[in-house]
């Protein structure tokens, strides 16, 4: 399992330790990951997530797992979170997408009729 937050996508970074004499040695910066369980009110079950402290604040800000997942497009979610969103959409029904207005193009014959009427 990679060391990566399932909400924010934070993962291990590589950097340098710099001593007083400016000698550099490689080191890793690990995210503050916690194993936590979150309850989905819509699905009525718990999901175990490995999230960072920043991810926990994000879920709290959105008002829970369900609200966070439904607010984000699937392309911005991790694979596990996308599966949760699909399960919620399946249970609730897909959210109604606004219908696109068709581009109105008048009929060519109607335009010709207007030109003929204007010339008379």
Tell how many strands the DSSP assignment holds. Answer: 4
Q: Can you tell me the residue ranges where pLDDT is under 50 for at least 5 consecutive residues?
A: none
Q: Which outline best applies?
A: elongated
Strands in their spatial order, largest beta sheet: 1-2
| Secondary structural class | alpha+beta
Q: Can you walk me through this structure?
A:
By secondary structure, this protein is an alpha+beta fold. 36% of the residues lie in helices and 23% in strands. It has four helices and four strands; from the N terminus they run ββββαααα. Strand 1 (13-18) and strand 2 (24-29) form a beta hairpin. The protein starts with 12 loop residues before the first strand and ends with a helix. 13% of the residues are buried.
Feature tags:
single chain, 120 residues, alpha+beta, two-stranded antiparallel ribbon, two-stranded antiparallel sheet, elongated
Question: Layout of SSEs?
Answer:
Blueprint lengths: L12 E6 L5 E6 L3 E8 L4 E8 H10 L2 H7 L7 H14 L15 H12 L1
Antiparallel strand pairs: 1-2, 3-4
Please sum up the structure shown.
The protein is an alpha+beta fold and 120 residues long. The protein has helices spanning 53-62, 65-71, 79-92, 108-119; strands at 13-18, 24-29, 33-40, 45-52.
């Amino acid at each position: 399992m990679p060391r990566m937050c399932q909400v924010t996508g934070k993962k291990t970074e590589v950097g340098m330790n710099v001593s007083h004499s400016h000698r550099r040695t490689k080191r890793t910066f690990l995210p503050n990951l916690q194993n936590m369980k979150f309850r989905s009110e819509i699905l009525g079950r718990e999901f175990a997530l490995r999230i960072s402290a920043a991810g926990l604040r994000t879920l709290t800000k959105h008002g829970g797992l369900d609200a966070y997942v439904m607010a984000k497009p699937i392309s911005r979610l991790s694979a596990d979170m996308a599966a949760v969103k699909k399960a919620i959409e399946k249970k609730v029904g897909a959210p109604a997408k606004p219908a696109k207005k068709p581009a109105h193009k008048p009929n060519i014959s109607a335009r010709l009729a207007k030109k003929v009427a204007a010339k008379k």
